[in-house]
Amino acid sequence: METFNLLLAIGLGLAAIISPMAVARINNRHDEKMRLKEFAHVETLKKMEYEHSLSEKRLSFSFQSKMDAFSDLVDAYILYLDSDKDESLFAKLSLAAAKASMYCSLDDAKGNVLGTLYVSHSECDREHVSQLIAHIDSLICALQLELSSEIHTK
């Protein structure tokens, strides 16, 4: 029985020594995993914040580009209508319309202008020019609606 008591005392002594070390090791592993998850979470938040700021910058560049194209189109349109249908002003109007149509999300307005531009460059007659003017009118209206809705959402 003494041997049993001695073995039991040795076992309990070893358990008393090993148990805190095992608990400390388990706690350290858990803390390490939690720190890694926290770092990953912080990195994810930083990445999301960066992507958000990048998308805002893209949107502002896109909005500014759309606004510039719209302004150029309106200026060229007014100059062309005020002139005696000058060919150089028509070329400027065509260029401004093609540029502005890139920023228009309305496919009908964009397609009509680009299609008429293609035809009017190959055969420049009054019918195609008047068609182009009508399509540019609808493009201007579409861009104006898009820009005003973007201003209201900001």
Percentage of residues in DSSP E strands: under 5%
What's the helix-strand series?
HHHH
> Which outline best applies?
rod-shaped
Are there runs of 5+ residues with pLDDT below 50, and where? Answer: none
Number of helices: 4
Helix/strand-derived class?
Answer: mainly alpha
Assign a percent range to the helix content: over 70%
Average pLDDT over all residues: 79
Radius of gyration: 36 Å
Spatial separation of the terminal alpha carbons: 86 Å
Instruction: Please give the number of β-strands.
Output: 0
Main sheet properties? none
Q: Descriptors for this entry?
A:
154 residues; mainly alpha; rod-shaped
List the helices and strands and how they pair.
Blueprint: H1 2-82, H2 87-103, H3 107-122, H4 126-153
Helix pairs in contact: 1-2, 1-4, 2-3, 3-4
Describe the protein.
The chain is mostly helical. It is built from four helices and no strands. It has helices at residues 2-82, 87-103, 107-122, 126-153. α1 runs antiparallel to α2 and α3 (107-122) packs antiparallel against α4. The longest helix has 81 residues, at 2-82. It is rod-shaped, with a radius of gyration of 36 Å. The chain starts with a helix and ends with a helix. The relative contact order is 0.08. The mean pLDDT is 79.
